[in-house]
Prior knowledge:
Blueprint: E1 12-13, H1 19-27, E2 34-35, E3 46-57, E4 67-80, E5 84-90, E6 102-105, H2 107-121
Keywords: Metal-binding, Zinc, Zinc-finger
Protein name: 3CxxC-type domain-containing protein
GO molecular function, one term: zinc ion binding
Amino acid sequence: MPRKERKAAKLWSLHPKLHDDVAQVLDEEGLQIDFLDADDEATNIKDRDTNVMGRFICLNAGCNFSGWSSKKVAMTIRMYPQQRYNARVYHQRCRNCKAVGRLVLDTGSYVERVTYWLKKWNGIEVQPPDFSGQSRGPHNSEL
């Protein structure tokens, strides 16, 4: 019997289900911005690389490393014409086996980062975020 083709692990994800949380914060400033499900690097009018927090679970059954948390999960926020946006969140690899981990995103940090940049791009004065958190582990950029 032929081997079953394994799907390649996704290296990034969009989170349209969090748009309601984003929209609620933006509504406080009178902003109406829609989520764009299609991630298109060619048609965006603004973008920003930033970081959010999250946890990753190693899905490799042969790996003895169950998961890890990260205060530095890379993300690219993009603004598109017609008041639309999306945010690509990049997944990390397990330090032990190099498999791509499954992301459990910190919703609060995602909403804060996305709304910060959407407000700023729309001319609303915003306070820069507080970066007082201390890292408790190495961040391997190769992963």
